Amino acid sequence: MKLVEARALTKIFRRPDKEPGLRGSMKHLLRRRFTTMTAVDAIDLSIEPGEALAYVGPNGAGKSTTIKLLTGIVEPTGGEVRVGGIVPHRDRQANARQIGVLFGQRTQLWWDLPVRESLALLRDMYDISPTDYQRQLDRFDEVLDLGALLPVVTRKLSLGQRMRADLACALLHQPKIVYLDEPTIGLDIAVKDRVRDFLRQLRAEGTTIMLTTHDLADIEGTCERIVIIDDGKIIYDGGLAEVKDRYARERRVHLQLGTPITAADLAARFPAAAVTPGEAHGEFTISFDKSLLTAGAVLTGVAQLAEVVEVRIDEPAIEDVVRRVYAGELNITPGPADAAGAHPPSASPTSAHPAGTHAASARAAYAAGAADARAAGVPGAEDVTGAAGDVDPAEEASR
Ligand SMILES: Nc1ncnc2c1ncn2[C@@H]1O[C@H](COP(=O)(O)OP(=O)(O)OP(=O)(O)O)[C@@H](O)[C@H]1O
Ligand SMILES: [Mg+2]
Questions:
Q1: What's the rounded Cα separation, in Å, for the pair 278 and 207?
Q2: Rounded distance from Cα 116 to ligand 1 centre (Å)
Q3: Which of 42, 195, 282, 303 is most deeply packed, by most CB within 10 A?
Q4: CATH number, domain at 174?
Q5: Residues in domain ABC transporter (predicted)?
Q6: How many domains does the chain fold into?
């Protein structure tokens, strides 16, 4: 049985159209006008138990809203959703027991309490036995170095420390599925690596994961399936390996060389690559297609010509991959998983959504590098659909 099953799931937010000032408010009282915003547009999504899914797309695409719909924080405007047989927004409490959630942009820890107290509160809320609780704490200490953070008050935690504590909170009750909305946002390389290791471990243990990120390296080794959402619609659902093979082939080796050498010398050595000199003396970037050349071959070749002082190898971020998918290359064929019918709702991912059906302006802006499609949306917009479950309490509080 599928763990998550969403059919034509839709969320439309409404924002009051109000002129500024008291006059505007009075006018709005007399004549209420609203602008609507379709954040999630009739998506079909199913997730099998044990699956790890990357849910990606540009800013404002509808990723967080989907997660809020799946967690029951937000009530759908249309369509159906079930998680482990439960309708999340109808039975929030039962749903909370089977899910874990982390919103990287905000914390679920109690601000003025030490981390230990937040965890103890969650232990009581979820009825976790003392043995299970201790086992989980030991495990989090091992993989997230949580022990040192336990006595610290949340507001005194650095971002990386806070994220580690939040991960512990999301997983304390051993949920069936964990939704991670940008769990590495703003983290330094060392903490990112730690979180990524943790995700890989979760995956290996069979936890079902839905992961939202803007960084391809987060999903590496964790997710085999990638779902791309744009303007509220799913435009691709299939294998990650296929998307990467097709759109993330470029590698960049950044070098600091200690021997005088020119870009032309390097270019002559690597005809299949593009060589760009950096700003500082001896700095170069060599870009190549990984199917034509390897980073190892580049380094060996360069070492024969010059002394290599420093090296950095970049692979494209998921943002770049998604941008390429948008930039007119939408005819990506379904991955092997799709072809085998593993994800029937999206078996014909993009052919069902020809380019013209998307909000062309947002996509064009994105493809051009202006990734913040939120500008095309309704920043600071209020949801006034009236349902009590519609408004995210955290968002409410921050307003
Ligand atoms: N409570 C709300 N009221 C009104 N509009 C909203 C609300 N929450 C989100 N939106 C709008 O819905 C759209 C989708 O937002 P969402 O937060 O789901 O995007 P996202 O894909 O998570 O983006 P990001 O990558 O920036 O986190 C945006 O245009 C946003 O402005
Ligand atoms: Mg988001």
A1: 44
A2: 32
A3: 195
A4: 3.40.50.300
A5: 24-256
A6: 2
User: 338-375, pLDDT tens digit by residue?
Assistant: 433 334 333 333 333 333 333 343 344 444 433 333 33
User: Where do runs of H (alpha helix) occur along the chain?
Assistant: 21-30, 63-71, 92-98, 115-125, 130-144, 159-171, 189-205, 216-219, 240-247, 263-269, 295-305, 318-326, 336-339, 360-367, 393-398
Q: pLDDT, tens digit, for every residue of 225-275?
A: 999 998 999 988 998 888 877 777 888 999 999 999 999 999 999 999 999
CA of 39 to the centre of ligand 1 (A): 6
Q: Are residues 268 and 124 in the same domain?
A: no
Q: In the predicted model, what is the mean pLDDT of the chain? A: 81
**Is the same domain home to 36 and 90?**
yes
Q: Residue 272 is part of a domain; what is its CATH number?
A: 3.30.70.100
Same structural domain, 122 and 236: yes
- Both 170 and 230 in one domain: the answer is yes
Same domain, 164 and 286: no
Closest atom of ligand 1 to CA, residue 232: 14
Look at ligand 1, atom 18, and give the residue with the nearest C-alpha. Answer: 62
Residue ranges making up the domain that contains 271: 250-314
| pTM, full prediction | 0.73
**Which residue's alpha carbon is at the smallest distance from atom 19 of ligand 1?**
60
* First-to-last C-alpha distance (Å) of the chain: 40
**Which of 65, 215, 231 for mutating ligand 1's site (highest number of atoms within 8 Å of CB)?**
65
- 238 neighbors 325 (Cβ within 8 angstroms): no
Mutate which of 40, 71, 374 for ligand 1? The one with the most ligand atoms within 8 Å of its CB, which is 374
